[in-house]
Specification:
two-stranded antiparallel sheet; elongated; single chain; 5 helices; 4 strands; about 140 residues; alpha+beta; about 65% helix
Length: about 140
C-alpha cells in the first residue's frame, strides 16, 4: 500500500447577510416592478412608471440570481451605487426634473433609495468574501 500526501484547494464561501439581502431585495423589487406596471403608486407612497417598473423587474431578477450565487457582494455594490445615484440626482435641483420625468421618482422613492443604497454598500463592504483554503489530504493507492 502506497500513500501520497497532496494539497487540495477548496473554495469556501458563504452568502451570509449579503446573499440574504440580495434575495429579499429581489423579491421586493419584483413585487414593486410588477405592481408598478399597473399602478403609478406602489406600497402607498412610492411613485413609479412603466420604465421604472421594468427596471425594477430586471434588477429583481438579477438580485435573486446574485443572492443564490457567489455574486451577491458585487451585485449589492452595483445596486447601492445605482440607488444612491438616483437619490442624489433627485436631491440636486438642476437634475431633479430629469429623474422625475424619466422615472417618476418622488421624495419617498429618493429617501428609500438613499437608505437601501447605503445598506447595500455597507453589507457589500463588510460581508463575507470567498476564501480559497489549501487543505492537506492523504490519498492512498492500493
Amino acid at each position: 500500500m502506497q500513500s501520497t500526501s497532496v494539497s487540495v484547494v477548496a473554495v469556501r464561501r458563504s452568502g451570509g447577510a449579503s446573499g440574504g439581502l440580495a434575495v429579499v431585495l429581489g423579491i421586493l423589487l419584483l413585487i414593486e416592478g410588477v405592481w408598478g406596471l399597473f399602478s403609478p403608486v406602489v406600497f402607498g407612497v412610492l411613485s413609479t412608471n412603466v420604465l421604472h417598473a421594468c427596471i425594477h423587474i430586471v434588477l429583481g431578477g438579477l438580485a435573486l440570481w446574485a443572492g443564490s450565487s457567489r455574486h451577491s457582494r458585487g451585485f449589492l455594490g452595483f445596486l447601492g451605487v445605482l440607488l444612491i445615484l438616483v437619490a442624489v440626482l433627485w436631491f440636486i435641483p438642476g437634475t431633479r426634473s430629469f429623474i422625475v420625468d424619466t422615472l417618476n421618482v418622488n421624495r419617498a422613492v429618493a429617501i428609500v433609495n438613499l437608505i437601501v443604497g447605503a445598506l447595500c454598500l455597507l453589507l457589500r463592504t463588510v460581508g463575507p468574501r470567498t476564501v480559497v483554503v489549501e487543505e492537506p489530504t492523504t490519498l492512498r493507492f492500493f
